[in-house]
Amino acid sequence: MARMRWPMHTGHLEGIDNRLKVMKHMAYGYRDSSDFFLKIKAAFPGNP
Prior knowledge:
Layout: H1 2-5, H2 10-26, H3 33-43
């Protein structure tokens, strides 16, 4: 049923998950989490 509501393949979700994990690893030395969340928003500009 969820497939009808959100037509997204699992490969796409795995790619997003992998990209977030890499970004989290690269953001290890940031002072606060707001910089990390700004990076996420810049990487995935589809949703405000």
